[in-house]
Amino acid sequence: MRITRTGGGHGRRTATLATTVLTASALLLTGCSSDDSDGSDANGNITLTVADFGQFGYKEAGLFAKYHELHPKITVKEETTANEQDYYPKLLQQLNTGSGLADVTGIEVGRIKEVVDTQSGKFADLSKTINVNDWVSWKEKQATAKDGTVIGAGTDIGPMSLCYRKDLFEKAGLPTDREAVAKAVAGGWEDYLKLGEQYKKKAPSGTYFMDSASAMYNAVVSSSAQQYYDTDGKPAYKDSQSVKQGWGLAAEAADKKLSQGLPQFTDAWNAALRKGTVATVACPAWMAGQISINSGDSFKGKWDISRAPGSTAANWGGSFLAVPKSGKHVKEATELVKWLTAPEQQAAVFKAIGVFPSNKGAYELADVKNAKLPYFSDAPIGQIYAEEAKSIPEAVLGAKDGVIKDTISTQINNMERRGTKPADAWKAATESIDKALG
Asked: pTM for the full model?
């Protein structure tokens, strides 16, 4: 969805702040006519607004323009916020006041549980519009309320991989073939750190093994069914084995200075990719597009993609499209959501920006099944991500997953950048989280 990633990186991409209207003809239609109270003009032309964050890929895939061709009386306008952390509070405010909402709104996976539990009555039920069984088994469950109402249609998911710089690995005396790299980290993220120590011994000047220990932390936690909450819906992050493992590995990475210590999707992180100082990035499917955008043409073919460390599949990220009941064109908006999340359209987005479909029907389409990324040395991402997606555990979600993840990530960054001791960082994280949880 995605390419956000809010501070700690729940699940999506960062993009340039923009409001995009696709198709010049559509602009002409709406610009030369006066709208009436229901948002349509005298000829029945309507404009549907889609509010999202980061990079959902619809513009890049030309889907809004295509939808206008299929439905000449409907123009789709995208309103994009760069950072999901800015987007979500605004969405909650709009839901609480009942005004300012778009016809279609994106919801990030780190927020979906809270929205389902507290705001589901304000969204159209999509269960009669989409077939929830078309998605990977756990995806639509995340957007389903206790009464069976489905408030969101799944866009992408984030099967995990490892993105790495072949040229830097070669200079450091490490294997460069993607199968050899996968073998080197087959034992898990502990092996990943061992590889980092080898890299550090002969690292090219000014380079670092990984971008951020908090990113590695998020990848570790994402491979577990139990993350921040237990099955009874109670916060359990203090006792979570995945959190303990991820925190310990992050503390080790910070102590051994294997990371450049850059919070992802910041200007400094973008600059590091552009300068070529980062050798590896924990890489959910949507991350490849972010790396290629920020690294630029000079590093094309120098990056590659391997399977993620360990044998446990992981999902990091993903989003949903929902339709607020308060919209003027709920029926038309619902049909747009159904179309945007159908296999063919999800495959088109994957081809355009590399975010992996959550609709299983897309996996057998050529644009997904045979997909390779030229920027990443023709890595067979269709095969890598589809294989990973089949065995991703169904994670237990909680209402404040995003808050917990962001807070812990911030303290990991403090260990890296400020030298905060792990015990002090953990104390600060838990105090802040407990305050937020009330």
From this structure: 0.81
